[in-house]
């Protein structure tokens, strides 16, 4: 017999089914609760609420496990290309040689963006934050591909939209960077890999013959894979909720980019470097910052520390800590910020406050140090996160539509004024 739980409400016994995941995770199914009892549940920040049953990413925060479609993040980061991982997230299996060749070819064909988009970029002030530009540009793609707005779109249209998005995001991201710096943009090059092409659009100039550095390309590939999905996080939940209204995929992804921008989510990678720079310039030692982070009257938090789900260690941070050393050594870069980061990690990991609350370095703690070594400026870090997260967002959107999930619409408990008569303007105190 399937497992159930009993709930006593107003003296009546309610039997609720228990759902067991393929890794033995347990959930109480309350989907009929309001209809049968009039009660809802309340859970600010959705800390205990599962919004879906998904077969994309498995995350065990207590044991630091992260798997995409069953494959460990460690193995994928070591052995796969970002496009193979994107395919895996979108279609459920790693591609064979033929499937990968088709996918690669299709992505490569769609890398150009409409020439009119140049005029959008021209209208942004110089120095505009690349995340603001990226989110707007992705939403604007739906105006160039109006078939994406049709809620009865065909499978072929959806497929084309997905490939276009994966192909065009690097082009738009590099354009956002070039605009921010006032530099000439580069067209995509179809003879390069996904990461190599992005690097030439970022760092290439019409006056030079840009050569992709292998170390940089491999590091970027690894970073993108590590960011590619993370189950129902803030931006992914946003993409699913926006998409659940049948808004087009471009708009759903644009909303995801906006959600990612915040410093408590993807914006933390920028905030980490800004914090480490601040600590370096201050020069007054680390304890002061640890104390500030612990002080409940001070809004300062140790950026890159803590995670809603990981309460032991973030496996992505473990991989990136090693990668940071390797990349800096291979590129011959020395960055005093890396030493400060390692020292800060040691101090925090030995402090009762952080230990008690399970606060460990997260993916954003070391990623920024690698991005810096690759020559990527701080305000592009969250854009890099978006590039990596894109296949995850799309895979999750695809799963949500294929499962015909209902529109996302939480309830609330109203705590405002009770009904009262209107008071005319002259009678108001
Ligand atoms: N520095 C100091 N104290 C912290 C920190 C931190 N970075 N993170 C959490 N705490 C404390 C918090 O004050 C609270 O203490 P108390 O129980 O005494 O009130 C306790 O730890 C639990 O924190 P919370 O805010 O309730 O936890 P949450 O699950 O709601 O938030 C978080 C998770 C990631 C937003 C938070 O840890 C944080 O703000 N970290 C810094 C920002 C950051 O690095 N974000 C990137 C996350 S990884 C990338 C991604 O996937 O988005």
Description of the molecule:
- There is one protein chain.
- 52% of the residues lie in helices and 7% in strands.
- It is mainly α and 429 residues long.
- It has 3 domains: 4-50, Rubrerythrin, domain 2 (Single Sheet); 85-264 and 378-402, Citrate Synthase, domain 1, CATH 1.10.580.10; 268-373, Orthogonal Bundle (Cytochrome p450-Terp, domain 2), CATH 1.10.230.
- The strands form 2 sheets. It has a 3-stranded antiparallel beta sheet, with no helix packed on it.
- Strand 2 and strand 3 (26-28) form a beta hairpin.
- Helix 4 (97-109) crosses helix 7, helix 9 (214-227) runs antiparallel to helix 17 (363-373) and helix 14 runs parallel beside helix 17 (363-373).
What structural keywords apply?
429 residues; mainly alpha; Rubrerythrin, domain 2; Citrate Synthase, domain 1; Cytochrome p450-Terp, domain 2; 3-stranded antiparallel beta sheet; globular; binds carboxymethyl coenzyme *A
Flag low-confidence runs.
none
State the helix count: 18
Q: Mind telling me which CATH architecture of the largest domain this is?
A: Orthogonal Bundle
Rough shape?
A: globular
The CA-CA distance between the termini, in Å, is 64 Å
| Radius of gyration computed on alpha carbons | 24 Å
Give the SSE map:
Elements: E1 4-9, E2 12-20, E3 26-28, H1 33-37, E4 57-60, E5 65-68, E6 71-72, H2 73-79, H3 82-91, H4 97-109, H5 117-123, H6 130-144, H7 155-181, H8 194-203, H9 214-227, H10 234-244, H11 249-261, H12 268-282, H13 287-294, H14 315-331, H15 336-349, H16 352-356, H17 363-373, H18 381-402
Antiparallel strand pairs: 1-2, 2-3, 4-5, 5-6
Helix pairs in contact: 2-9, 3-18, 4-7, 6-7, 6-11, 7-8, 7-18, 9-14, 9-17, 9-18, 10-11, 10-18, 11-18, 12-15, 12-17, 14-17
């Amino acid at each position: 017999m399937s497992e159930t739980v009993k709930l006593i409400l107003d003296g009546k016994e309610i039997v609720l089914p228990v759902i067991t995941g393929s890794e033995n995770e347990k959930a109480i199914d309350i989907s009929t609760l309001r209809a049968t009892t009039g009660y809802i549940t309340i859970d600010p920040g959705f800390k205990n609420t599962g919004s879906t049953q998904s077969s994309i990413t498995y995350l065990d925060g207590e044991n630091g496990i992260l798997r995409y479609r069953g494959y460990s993040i460690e193995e994928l980061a070591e052995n796969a290309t970002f496009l193979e991982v994107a395919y895996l997230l979108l279609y459920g299996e790693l591609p064979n040689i033929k499937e990968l060749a088709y996918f690669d070819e299709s992505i490569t064909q769609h890398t150009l963006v409409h020439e009119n988009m140049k005029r959008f970029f021209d209208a942004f002030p110089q120095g505009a934050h690349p995340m603001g530009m990226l989110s707007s540009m992705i939403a604007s793609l739906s105006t160039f591909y109006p078939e994406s707005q049709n809620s009865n779109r065909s499978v072929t249209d959806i497929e084309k939209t997905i490939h276009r998005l994966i192909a065009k995001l690097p082009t738009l991201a590099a354009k956002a960077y070039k605009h921010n710096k006032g530099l000439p943009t580069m067209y995509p090059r179809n003879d390069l890999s996904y990461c190599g092409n992005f690097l030439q659009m970022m760092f290439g100039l019409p006056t030079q013959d840009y050569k992709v550095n292998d170390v940089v390309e491999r590091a970027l590939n690894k970073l993108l894979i590590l960011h590619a999905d993370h189950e129902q996080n803030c931006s992914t939940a946003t993409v699913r909720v926006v998409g659940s209204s049948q808004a087009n995929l471009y708009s759903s992804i644009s909303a995801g980019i906006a959600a990612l921008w915040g410093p408590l989510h993807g914006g933390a990678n920028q905030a980490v470097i800004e914090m480490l720079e601040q600590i370096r310039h201050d020069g007054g030692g680390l304890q002061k910052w640890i104390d500030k982070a612990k002080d409940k009257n001070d809004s300062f938090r140790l950026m890159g520390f803590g995670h809603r789900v990981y309460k032991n260690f973030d496996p992505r941070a473990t991989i990136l800590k090693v990668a940071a050393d390797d990349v800096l050594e291979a590129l011959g870069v020395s960055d005093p910020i890396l030493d400060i980061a390692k020292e800060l990690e040691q101090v925090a990991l030995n402090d009762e406050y952080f230990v008690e609350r399970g606060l460990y370095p997260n993916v954003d703690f070391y990623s920024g140090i690698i991005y810096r070594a690759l020559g990527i400026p701080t305000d592009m870090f969250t854009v890099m996160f978006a590039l990596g997260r894109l296949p995850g967002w799309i895979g999750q959107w695809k799963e949500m539509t294929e499962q015909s999930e209902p529109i996302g619409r939480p309830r609330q408990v109203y705590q405002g004024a009770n009904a009262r008569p209107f008071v005319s303007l002259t009678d108001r105190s």
